[in-house]
Specification:
Length: about 230
């Protein structure tokens, strides 16, 4: 017998019994009727659940996405995030903050949860950036030391001449920039500055050439002199 029919019969029986039975019997009948109602509700819920499962199987990806969105709890994100507090020594570009805020809002992050994420990832960004710069500087320095013209046994002399050029022609601020970024380690930077700095180096004692000519440019007498730059 279907559940609905059982409930109707149970309700009718309960009504008939209520007129002739003792209070105890009437209470028992009421309990039986209540149990029948509960059973019907459970059966209805099972039917609904099965129908939902059957529908999910045939849903398109768009329908499934819409259903998932509907089941997502309401967002706790504010209309606009207040300024985030960054860890000491960490700075983030305004564009980065803007992109993060947009993503945090999409995810429904509260102000507190968004701040927690910033506090955790900002130091990682800083460390990664510093590591990348250090690697670039190290790579340029290694290339300069291996260069056939300015590296090897000539490296210290090349760097010394480059420093003379920097001190003579560049401001302290620009020299600090070259050191900070590591561009001062680039082979072409050292090569060019060494050429500029060579005439600025003080001459020491330079032996003359046995093949020097007595006529023409006097610099030919001293081929090892810095005057021949």
């Amino acid at each position: 017998m279907p559940v609905e029919a059982e409930v109707v019969v149970a309700d009718a029986a309960a009504t008939a019994v209520a007129a002739t039975h003792t209070p105890e019997q009437k209470a028992a009948a009421d309990a039986a009727a209540a149990a029948a109602v509960t059973q019907k509700a459970a059966a209805d819920a099972a039917v609904t659940q099965k129908a939902a499962a059957d529908a999910a199987v045939t849903q398109t990806p768009e329908q499934k996405a819409a259903a998932a969105a509907a089941a997502t709890p309401a967002s706790t994100a504010p209309e606009k995030y207040t300024d985030f507090t960054l860890p000491e020594g960490v700075t983030l570009d305004a564009k980065v903050i803007e992109a993060f805020s947009k993503t945090a809002k999409t995810l429904g992050l509260s102000q507190g949860n968004a701040q927690l994420v910033i506090s955790e990832i900002a130091p990682v960004f800083k460390a990664r950036g510093e590591s990348a710069i250090a690697q670039v500087r190290a790579d340029m320095l290694a290339a300069s030391k291996a260069d056939k013209d300015i590296g090897g046994g000539k490296f210290d002399t090349s760097v010394g001449l480059a420093k003379l050029a920097m001190e003579a022609h560049f401001s302290k601020e620009f020299n600090a920039f070259l050191n900070l970024t590591g561009l001062g380690n680039h082979p072409e930077m050292i090569r060019g500055l060494a050429k500029i700095g060579k005439p600025l180096a003080p001459d020491g004692w330079v032996p003359g050439s046995k093949d020097a000519q007595t006529k023409g440019d006097a610099r030919s007498w001293y081929p090892n002199s810095l005057m021949n730059a």
